User: Fold Cyclodeaminase/cyclohydrolase domain-containing protein from Herbiconiux moechotypicola.
Amino acid sequence: MMLAFAASLAGMVAGYSAPAKFEGAPVGGDDGAATDGDEGASSGCGDGAISGGEQSTTIGADQGAGGRHGGWEAARRAVAERVAALREKALQLADSDAEASGAFSSAFALPPGTDHHHAAVRVAALGGARSSAALGGAALALLPDLDWLSREGNPAVAADVAVAHAALRAALTGARTNLSADLALYEAAPPATAATAADADLSALRDTLAAMDAALTTDASGGGHTSA
Assistant:
């Protein structure tokens, strides 16, 4: 859910942004404060963000023609579309993750030490790992867009970008922790049968874990991220 919140907030920011780096692009009112079009956008945790955000793809009418640089506007629209799609995907992934968690309950309810128990644990662990990797991959995909918004967006909504980044880091940390634990559990459970085709997923899952580690390490060091 933290990923859905981060994507929702990023979408709201994209809707309210004005190009900060192009000459003549107005940012808020004459005194630099947020205009009526920005009202509520810099509140960090406004009702719109919590409920999913408006996912607006238009700049407020009071921004004026001076801020409508063609290349910037195309980039902003692309960001808004991606984060809107990601928000919906994040909600679906949250439902899938809940189902994966339920499989653990069923597996651990079986008599311990039996082949049936070990096999069920491995299936549940692999399913949990796949779910966590999908969440982590979606979170990683949002990083470049948040970086773009922090560089090119309206400074009046910088606080919202910071909140979205914090929510994204929380989602990424949770997914990384679960993925690591699921992989460890899968590998610790005695295999009831020979290696299956499912084991081929392990390499890809470990790659995703490494990517999440790298992103969190870069973020913790203050190095930031760069968009592709």
Observations:
- The chain has one domain: 2-220.
- DSSP finds six helices and no strands in the chain.
- The CA atoms of residues 136 and 172 lie 6 Å apart.
- The radius of gyration is 21 Å.
